[in-house]
Amino acid sequence: MTSRSDGNTTLPSFRAGELRDAELTAALRTLELTVRRRLDGVLHGEHLGLIPGPGTEPGDAREYQPGDDVRQMDWSVTARTTHPHVRQSVADRELETWLVVDLSASLDFGTVGAEKRDLAVAAAAAVAHLTSGGGNRIGAIVATGERTVRIPARGGRLHAHAMLRTIASTPHAPDGVRGDLRGAIESLRRPQRRRGLAVVVSDFLGPIDWERSLRALSGRHDLLGVEVLDPRDLELPDLGEVVLHDPETGRTREFHTSPQLRADFAAAAAAHRGTVEQTLRGCGAPVLSLRTDRDWIADVVRFVAARRHSYGARVNRAPRQ
Q1: Which residue in 163, 144, 285, 301 sits closest to 227, CA to CA?
Q2: End-to-end CA distance of the chain, in Å?
Q3: pLDDT tens-digit map of 59-80
Q4: Spatial contact of 128 and 163, defined as CB atoms under 8 Å apart
Q5: Which residue of 43, 134, 273, 285 has the fewest C-beta atoms within 10 A of its own C-beta?
Q6: From the CB of residue 235, how many other CB atoms can be counted at a distance below 10 Å?
Q7: Stated pTM of the model
Q8: Reduced to 3 DSSP states, what percent helix, strand and coil does the chain have, rounded to the nearest 5?
Q9: pLDDT confidence of 45, banded at 50, 70, 90?
Q10: Is the peptide bond between 231 and the residue preceding it cis, with omega within 30 degrees of 0?
Q11: Distance of CA 90 to the CA centre of its chain
């Protein structure tokens, strides 16, 4: 087992099909301890810290914010205050979470000591820990482009550990096989599952052909997008002549990393990332960005804390009936 350090955080490296069972167990144990140690401090109360669920119990009303679901309008408070208000529901005590984990060939890549695939496994572990307990269940759809693995939603620590083991040990896609994020999201839509939380973990590279499927999924589930990136997804270093290989098309090309090429690449990468974020948010999915060159667990903690603070502040400002 190998690992690398992001500041104060060690990210185990999961080389699918290469680790012996004992090494995989040790890597998963290291990841579990890291997640528990760093995230337990932000877990106070129910799973509202990760993402507020639609729930079934009525909560406080709050003033309407752009992007709120108009179906949640509280017309009585709106009429009384002359300002539009929505009724905020309290999340269900039992949550069913589904992970859509993209393990296409573009994630078998990393330049900072570990691959984006490792970061995807870490993100899955963090979500599993944040949504565990209280009768909650978690399942996963794992897609490589060649195959799709479905893990039923169940509760308990043993199931979560087995799920992470399956994700971490999923074989790499063969060279030349394109990823199919849209197909993975569709696999979660059909058959229809219990209303809950759907978390999409991907680098979101390639065509954005999954928007319609994700938008349809948002009609039944709360959404969260987890973007996993490597620095080389965003910019090219000044290396002179380089040979680049695209594992999803199987094509190999030689380039000279001139200042113009590097500038064009950075502009195109920034534009694509901006479109991805806009699309995710347009589907109602907040975005958690994780990078192989940053302290990923610190980014998770900041995301959870920010959502808890934002959610709590909105509720506290709301008038009571």
Answers
A1: 285
A2: 57
A3: 567 888 887 777 788 888 888 8
A4: yes
A5: 134
A6: 13
A7: 0.80
A8: 40, 25, 35
A9: very low
A10: no
A11: 23
